[in-house]
């Protein structure tokens, strides 16, 4: 759960670092996302310490939270970036992450995206199919460049996570099947504009156990040995995303235990290790602050109706994901069971059912916890709801790091044809 250290209660009022959430809410209309810069820094430094023995390149998965202030925080700590689009490359570069620390994943990289990445000189393309390899070779040759590649290997390992975020089973769309890896590497060795440099694997997100990592990395290690025997130059192993996070009091392995598994399974290969954590850097560094609009007593239950909806935080609707929900002010308030819902016209716009929350009334502030990763980035404007603001806190300072647009800005994105 979101660490008390960065979102502590003082006299039963929630703070972000040293800034009262109620103070933020007065300055920034609810709903808004609030991130703790110190929490992001602490998670990054934990990874750096854990993976010091491998001298790993940490490439933050930009998809988890691409806000420029977040990326700048990580760039200043020396982070690289794992990206999946030109947009994410541009975000990373603009935050000061150098191209030589960027790895590019994704199953359907378009020609113009490859061209852009090649011109920047990124560290590695994680190639996910043979057709992608062929196109990359053509684009690199045309530009007189060389694309450094790893194939993303699908090891057919069950990640023991939610089916929608499991990526390393044979039935998933990701990567080249392990059984076809040799054919793919042999083909890559023949093609102009391609330099083989590594192997990549990512079996899924929100992994709470080490065994699936261990199984996947063991398969990758023996593949690397076979590829080397076949004459391929493999110097990099990209092990994909990081650990899951504690949403609900789960007992999670430490980053050090994760690094130890990497050392045990891959250490003997003497490869450069790349790791692409997203959720474990940002997830518990952010919350969604919302106001109670109404408390409604239904036939069977009480509803806390918030001003934040599924369009602002999709995870509960999409994955039935659990997020801890806290009253920002809990002075002398008993716990009560509520269905916590948003204003969107969908029954699925439900954050929690019969959840114990300190008794709340209209106007009270509610914090939905562990929202720093895959929160703001997955938001939409469904129901013509404006994107919400994002705020970053550091010690006793805060800054709005994304403004809420105006309704005019939203409407003016559309173009009415001249014949109407
Ligand atoms: C290729 C790739 N790398 C890294 C990540 C980040 O994973 P996580 O947020 O679980 O660390 C993802 C997302 O699952 C991914 O698809
Ligand atoms: N969006 C997912 C994670 C997807 C990871 C992308 N490969 C989540 O919120 O849990």
From TrEMBL:
Cofactor(s), names only, from the UniProt record: pyridoxal 5'-phosphate
GO biological process terms held by the UniProt record: lysine biosynthetic process via diaminopimelate
Enzyme class per UniProt: lyase
Positions of pyridoxal 5'-phosphate binding: 242, 276-279, 374
UniProt GO MF annotations: diaminopimelate decarboxylase activity; pyridoxal phosphate binding
Pfam (any one): Orn_Arg_deC_N
Active site: 345 (proton donor)
Catalytic activity: meso-2,6-diaminopimelate + H(+) = L-lysine + CO2
Residues with PTM N6-(pyridoxal phosphate)lysine: 63
Keywords: Amino-acid biosynthesis, Decarboxylase, Lyase, Lysine biosynthesis, Pyridoxal phosphate
InterPro entries: Ala_racemase/Decarboxylase_C, DAP_deCOOHase_LysA, De-COase2_C, De-COase2_CS, De-COase2_N, De-COase2_pyr-phos_BS, Orn/DAP/Arg_de-COase, PLP-binding_barrel
CDD domains for the chain: PLPDE_III_DapDC
Domain Orn/DAP/Arg decarboxylase 2 C-terminal: 33-372
Superkingdom field: Bacteria
Binding-site list for substrate: 279, 315, 319, 346, 374
Keyword GTP-binding: no
Subunit-level organization: Homodimer.
Function: Specifically catalyzes the decarboxylation of meso-diaminopimelate (meso-DAP) to L-lysine.
Family: Belongs to the Orn/Lys/Arg decarboxylase class-II family. LysA subfamily.
Protein name: Diaminopimelate decarboxylase
Organism: Litorilituus sediminis
């Amino acid at each position: 759960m979101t660490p008390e250290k960065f979102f502590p209660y003082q006299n039963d009022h929630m703070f972000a670092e040293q800034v009262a959430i109620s103070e933020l809410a007065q300055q920034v209309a609810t709903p808004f996302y609030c991130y703790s810069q110190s929490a992001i820094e602490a998670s990054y430094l934990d990874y750096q310490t854990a993976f010091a023995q491998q001298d790993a390149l940490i490439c933050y998965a930009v998809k988890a939270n691409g806000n420029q202030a977040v990326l700048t925080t990580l760039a200043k700590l020396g982070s690289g970036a794992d990206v999946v689009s030109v947009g994410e490359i541009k975000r990373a570069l603009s935050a000061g992450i150098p191209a030589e620390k960027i790895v590019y994943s994704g199953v359907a990289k378009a020609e113009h995206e490859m061209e852009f990445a090649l011109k920047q000189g990124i560290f590695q393309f994680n190639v996910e199919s043979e057709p992608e390899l062929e196109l990359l070779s053509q684009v690199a040759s045309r530009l007189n460049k060389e694309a450094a590649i790893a194939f993303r290997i699908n090891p057919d390992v069950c990640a023991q996570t939610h089916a929608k975020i499991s990526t390393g089973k044979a039935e998933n769309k990701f990567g080249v099947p392990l059984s076809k890896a040799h054919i793919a590497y042999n083909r890559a060795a023949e093609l102009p504009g391609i330099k083989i440099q590594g192997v990549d694997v990512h079996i899924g997100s929100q992994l709470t156990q080490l065994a699936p990592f261990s199984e996947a990395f063991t398969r990758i290690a023996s593949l690397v040995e076979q590829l080397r025997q076949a004459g391929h130059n493999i110097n990099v192993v990209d092990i994909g995303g990081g650990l899951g996070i504690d949403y609900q009091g789960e007992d999670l392995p430490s980053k050090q235990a994760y690094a130890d598994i990497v050392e045990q399974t891959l250490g003997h290969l003497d490869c450069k290790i790349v790791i692409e954590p997203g959720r474990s850097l940002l997830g518990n560094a952010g919350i969604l602050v919302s106001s109670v609009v109404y408390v409604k007593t239904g036939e069977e239950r009480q509803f806390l109706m918030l001003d934040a909806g599924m369009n602002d935080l999709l995870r509960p609707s999409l994955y039935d994901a659990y997020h801890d929900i806290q009253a920002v002010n809990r002075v002398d308030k008993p716990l009560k069971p509520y269905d916590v819902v948003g204003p969107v016209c969908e029954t699925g716009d439900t954050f929690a059912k019969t959840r114990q929350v300190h008794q709340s009334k209209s106007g009270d502030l509610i914090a939905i916890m562990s929202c720093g990763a895959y929160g703001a980035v997955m938001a939409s404007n469904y129901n013509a709801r404006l994107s919400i603001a994002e705020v970053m806190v550091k010690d006793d300072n805060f800054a709005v790091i994304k403004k809420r647009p105006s309704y005019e800005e939203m409407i003016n994105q559309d173009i009415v044809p001249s014949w109407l």
